[in-house]
Amino acid sequence: MRRSLKRMALGLSAVAVVGFTVAACGSSGSGSGSGSTATTAQKPTNCAAPENYCVGFVTDVGKIDDKSFNQSAWEGVKKAVAEQGVQADYIETVSQKDYATNIKTFLDQKYDLIITWGFLMGEATTKAAKANPKTTFIGGDQFQATTVPNLTGITFPEAKAGFLAGALAGYMTKSNKVGAVLGTNTVPPVVQFKEGYEAGAKYANPNISVKSTYHPGGADVAFTDPAFGADTAKQMLDQGIDVIFGAGGKTGNGALAETAKKAGAALCIGVDSDQWLTVPEAHPCLMTSAMKLITPGVQKLIAQAKDGTIKAGGFSGDVGLAPFHDFESVIPADVQQKITDLTAKVLSGEVPTGVKQ
Amino acid sequence: MTGATTAPDTPAPSGPRIDVGRWMRPALVPLVAIALGLLLGAILILSIGENPLDAYGAIIEGAFGSPDAVGRTLEKATPLVFGGLAVAFAFKGGLFNIGGQGQILIGAVFAAWAGFTFDLPTVIQIPFSLLVGGLAASLLGALVGWLKAVRGVHEVISTIMLNFVAANFTEWLVNTSGPFADPPATNPSNLARTPLINSSAEIPHIGGLPLGFFFSVVVATVCWWLLERTTLGFEIRTVGHNRHAAAYAGINVVLLTILVMTISAFLAGLGGAVETLGVTGRFEPGSNAFLGFAGITIALLARTNPLAVVPAALLIGALQAGTSLMQARTGVPPEIVDLIQAFILFFVAAPVVVLWIIRRRGQEEERLQLTTGWGG
Amino acid sequence: MKLDPKVKRIILWSIVAAIVLGWILAYRWDADQTTAVASRTVRAAAPLLLGALCGVIGERTGVFNIGIEGQMLFAAFVGFMAASYSGSLLLGIAAGVAGAMVLGLFLGWAAVTLKMDQIIAGTVINVFALGFTSFYYVQGRTMPSFPSWSVPGLDGLPLLGKSFFSNPPLTYLAMIATVVVWIGLFKTRWGLRTLAVGENPGAADAVGVNVIFKRYVNVTIAASLAGFAGLHLLQSANSFDRGMTNGQGFIALAVMIVGRWHPFGAAAGAALFGFCIALEAQLQFNDALDIPPQFFGMIPYVTTIAVLAIAGIRARPPAAGGHPFEKE
Fold first, then answer.
1. Per CATH, which fold does C39-138+162-311 belong to?
2. Chains with 3 or more CB pairs closer than 8 angstroms to C?
3. What is the ipTM of this complex?
4. Could you tell me the pTM of the whole model?
């Protein structure tokens, strides 16, 4: 009796493993899930059909909901879904070695446009574009040294955005000390923001002292350490710094949140997108954000890709300062005027940032 | 005492035993553990409103569904084999090497350096570059071993600290204007990375399958042979079981400690090197994230048996390879793989639960004991 | 290197004196910077200290806990979600601590009843916590912030005032917990029994101590400290992020060993590490030398290894650590 029970239990386990495998294989391809973080209700289907324009978005290592970099681009894709009538899906890359795999996943499903978001994906994207001339590719933050006919690289002049942020900091500081809490110096856009910020601050206020810190850890932790960002911001605030620029993903967001605790005595500036909308805990201090106008840039390119008017090679996106929101009344009118004038001059190149690209 | 303690075969208390052959018995617990892990994972997937069959189907197809996929799975499994071997080898010697992560990074970056600096014929270039990577990492191990044996610094601390140090150091090496950095001529975006290795250093794929994987199997076999069939291996395992008894028996515990950590780090470094030469072609910070910790899980799944490390690595590698497709087909976050790993590990390590299911109570010899205590 | 105990004591006190002198001189050189560094040291040390205390209690009872990292992360996640959904900070804290204690109970069950290898049990906790918290994380939630409390009177003290007496609640908790754990371990019956169980469970069992029960209870209580450590990170960051512990649970283990399994030792170790973190930030602020940030980042870790290597004293942990208890 026991023997047969035992055999049964054993058999059951074996069946379970095999059964899972078989059933799973059998049902593959019919999935249409809507998980907790997915923001498109429907997965694109039948992309091979000409009437379906399917857009595939591959993030760099990181999540789609990171409150800035990936999220702003995905917002652009979502807008295109709503306004241009395309279908879209995303894959979050877990490891840098998966870039090609993730791109291929979309290629295999005959997606029309593949967007890879992150400068590290430049090589993988170029390779895939060359091998698949019928598919359109867009690369975010990917500088195009040579032009590939079906690949458009959208880059943003971060130094200019940083410059404007620095200038505003320079005008608004009362202690003549400003600071920046950054991710890591292995990410060129971050370095561009930093150098732009320092140049802008000095332009507005030659006596100013600017203290910037990078997270001391590796690239895999530098952007996801809000406690460090907050503690570093506090260390700066304790030494009389009264404007802090948070440019380092979640680490930077921590700095903003900490600065907000000293509302009234300190100000902060966000990065990448209008963080007023995404980091509510920073409202008490957040005068503006140094934005890469990612969302409109991405949407524009998708629309162009769909119409066939997209140009290969490099595309320079726009940058600017986010609206001041509640700080409209705090920032003096003459400062606002100076910033408006300066923005035009910096964007046109009349006032150079002095930062090496 | 360390290593899987195997008491002589005691007959099951009463009632039936499973007649599936002696070689199947050790595999039984892990297999059921895997099934249970997948089951729990399925429950979690259901809890977020997704279909587990779709998810698992996608993973399987993503991992094995095409020759390309199989190649990818093997690629993912390769560093896991080395990472697992490194941890398992150290455990056999009574040491806990949590430093795999740092050792892999050092191995990877120095192999890249050898790969782009020298351009010897392939037959020499590849072993040479691998050796450079492995040896560089082994220095870390030697340091840790020395600190432990001579200065009493517990290897858990020194390896953890060195992980951070290695991460920072390798990042500095390849960052713009660092000594190993890719010059602007080939690197217009100024990324932090080494130049590409010369083609003579590339470990090829044969028929779509990465040669590096087969190399890892060879290394695993060598490790097993070393530990089970040589005098040195016997001494290592003796030290692992009981340092004091080993010393009493005349074994030079100090030397052996250093040697074990050195070899362990060498294995991890080799993993990093194979990864660079066979998959990535250069070193970039962040390209080898979390491999070291996966190595711990693999070694534990394999119950520190070097040969068992290979299937364990294949399992985890397959799970990881399949997540791309799973994400495309369903909305299940890729972290489900970590959760499944945790469950499987639990069931493998607490065989009581599994054994209850297959009705084998009281088989004490199944239990895996690794810990020697902090004092060693 | 064998040293006469008297010589050792002299060296130790000289080091303490040098440290005190160093701080005083630094303060006179630049009060603001020094105070800021001191404040940062305290804030950075607190979670490490809480984590180390968790490890100390567990280890003294004979159970390793390398799952501190997972317990911290889990507590931060549960605490954040609870505080965010309920709007109540207190509820968040309670939930976070409860979450950590659940994992502590798991460790107890795995180590004591299942007699699983404790390293594996701890690893399971770590991998599970990371996977679980990332899997269920939802973007966009906020939580109420922690207040900051100043101790009236004492917060006016130079240097010490700002750094020790003007802090959010969990930082004070870390300081208090150190003393409480010391008193508990060395001055109470509970403590003596705990130590006995950790050193020689067989003997403790023989005199009537319920080893099993004690280990369960202590591991769970210890986990609450890990919970507070995780919540401390939440306190600084004001929001949860995936993997936000970033290895600090393992550093807490190192701090525990540097502190030789003693609460005050752990405090010293945590302070050393925290100081290194504060120092490297300050050096970056001052553009001290043209050194890449990655090198600054190495300071805390190299220092820890160096301190241990130089001190060179073989740390002796509780004898029964790591081994499950088998009743004769």
1. ABC transporter involved in vitamin B12 uptake, BtuC (1.10.3470)
2. A, B
3. 0.86
4. 0.85
